[in-house]
Design a protein that fits this description.
Blueprint lengths: L1 H8 L10 E10 L2 E4 L5 E7 L4 E2 L36 E2 L6 H20 L8 H6 L7 E4 L4 E2 L3 H14 L2 E2 L7 E2 L2 E12 L2 E11 L6 H4 L4 H25 L11 H10 L18 H15 L13 E3 H24 L5 E2 L5 H34 L4 H28 L5 E2 L3 H20 L4
Antiparallel strand pairs: 1-2, 1-7, 1-10, 2-3, 3-6, 4-5, 8-9, 10-11, 11-12, 13-14
Helix pairs in contact: 1-4, 4-10, 6-7, 9-12, 10-11
């Protein structure tokens, strides 16, 4: 992966030249997603579109609908705008407006034609895969951090940050065993005049399945092993269903890992799998199991060829629509904050108490960043020389920072427990803030087109 990133950054590859390369890193730990590039902040995972996207949809007085069909605000204060792009304009599944009624009728007619043609009887999965593209129900994260890759130093920092931040532990079989799955995503932007195409590459490092009686793990490590084995079992079920090609139910929603891997396992993605095996006879059973898993995964067939090519669109128009969407969300956040739906504090508390809480939150953020940076430096130093004095110094520094981070986290938790002191923002307010982060990443991918 680092070598491919280096080739992409230096335009030494067979894919062509890219004007912009962005990267994100997600950790799936005990069936929850965390952002490795943002202090392991938790990420919400859901569908890109739960509703129906209408091109040139009529205005509605019910509120502004965001991606996923959620109502961003209700009441007469804000009216929905007509948006004709994939940034907004999503109607909920229960909408009964004229365009939605026509769309439902067309979908029903399409299903009837497919049924009459015998497409389902023949066991073909092409219908399901065609309808399961990135625009129609893939799962994604909200508020995911994307960082630009411009130089070789950026790549080195990325790799050491991911390895240093990722959850790991030692047991009888491995001195440093990954206790989570890691997903690194690259967004590649290619410009051709006024049109822009965005391609995505995803690198997935699955935590190895292990037998608890061999690894000898207990307590927290045992819970981690159970979570890893459970997610891999669900992934195996998904692969089994994909290989049947009978248009039956595929249990993508059974785990966070399979939800995030859906776009890679079906649709227009090109899939490649690498299996790490041990040559020792003591691990022959595990090696055979891994080989069988790789064989099943390699037999998954996706739609490639013309349909797998990146789609181009007008960069200027897309940028204007995204900017308009950002203005809508910003206005909604201001309105919600004026209604007391954002983060606030009780009126009976003094400004010095509130200021002390805000300063503690800033200190916690600083300690968390220093912990991640020290972990990255320690991982890099350990790779060069395990017994060097700098490694011991960094290890001591890391322990001190973790103690300060834990202590500050405890202080903030106690402050939050004071009745009526800290009133957290509404879930919708937090969701809109994360959507602004996603919009900023989209604008960065477009390169600031006007």
């Amino acid at each position: 992966m680092p070598r491919l990133m280096f080739d992409l950054v230096n335009n030494q590859n067979s894919f062509g030249q890219f004007s912009n390369v962005l990267v994100s890193a997600i950790e799936v730990y005990q069936d929850s997603a965390y952002d490795l590039l943002n202090n392991r902040g938790p990420l919400r995972v859901g569908t890109k579109s739960l509703g129906r996207r209408q091109v040139g949809a009529a205005n509605t007085s019910a509120g502004v609908f965001g991606v996923g069909g959620d109502i961003l605000s209700s009441g007469p204060a804000i009216r929905a705008k007509s948006v004709t792009t994939n940034v907004s304009g999503v109607h909920p599944s229960s909408c009964h407006c004229s365009p939605c009624f026509i769309a439902k009728k067309a979908e029903k007619e399409k299903r009837k034609q497919l049924r009459d043609s015998g497409a389902f009887k023949n066991g073909s999965s092409s219908v399901r895969k065609l309808e399961s593209t990135a625009e129609n129900g893939d799962y994604t994260t909200q508020g995911e951090t994307f960082l630009p890759l411009r130089t070789s130093d950026d790549i080195v920092k990325l790799c050491t940050t991911v390895e240093g931040s990722r959850t790991a532990a030692s047991h009888n079989l491995n001195e440093r065993s990954s206790r989570s799955h890691a997903l690194v995503k690259l967004k590649l932007t290619k410009k051709n005049g006024s049109s822009v195409s965005i391609q995505t590459m995803m690198f997935v490092d699955l935590a190895g399945s292990e037998r608890i009686n061999k690894s000898g793990v207990e307590g927290t490590k045992k819970c981690q092993a159970i979570a890893i084995n459970s997610s891999l079992t669900i992934l195996g079920r998904v692969i089994q269903r994909l290989n049947k090609r009978d248009n039956g139910h595929i249990p993508f929603r059974d785990s966070i890992l399979t939800m995030l891997l859906r776009s890679s396992l079906e649709g227009r993605a090109k899939l490649c799998v690498c299996i790490n095996l041990s040559s020792e006879a003591a691990h022959a059973e595990e090696s055979i199991c891994s080989s069988r898993f790789g064989a099943r995964l390699s037999s998954v067939k996706n739609l490639v060829g013309e349909s797998a090519r990146a789609r181009s669109f007008d960069a200027s128009k897309e940028f204007r629509d995204i900017t308009r969407r950002k203005e809508e969300i910003s206005a909604t956040l201001v309105l919600m904050e004026s209604r007391g739906e954002g983060e606030r504090f009780g009126e009976e508390f003094s400004q010095s108490e509130i200021r002390g809480f805000v300063e503690n939150v800033a200190k916690l953020s600083k300690f968390s960043k220093e912990v991640i940076e020290t972990q990255r430096q320690l991982y890099e130093a350990s790779a060069k020389n395990t017994n060097s004095p700098s490694t011991a110094t960094l290890q001591k520094r890391l322990e001190e920072l973790k103690f300060q981070e834990t202590n500050m986290n405890g202080i903030i938790s106690r402050q939050k427990y004071i009745s009526g002191f800290h009133i957290p923002p509404k879930p919708l307010f937090q969701k809109l803030q994360k959507e602004l982060v996603d919009i900023d990443a989209q604008m960065h991918s477009l390169g600031g087109q006007k």
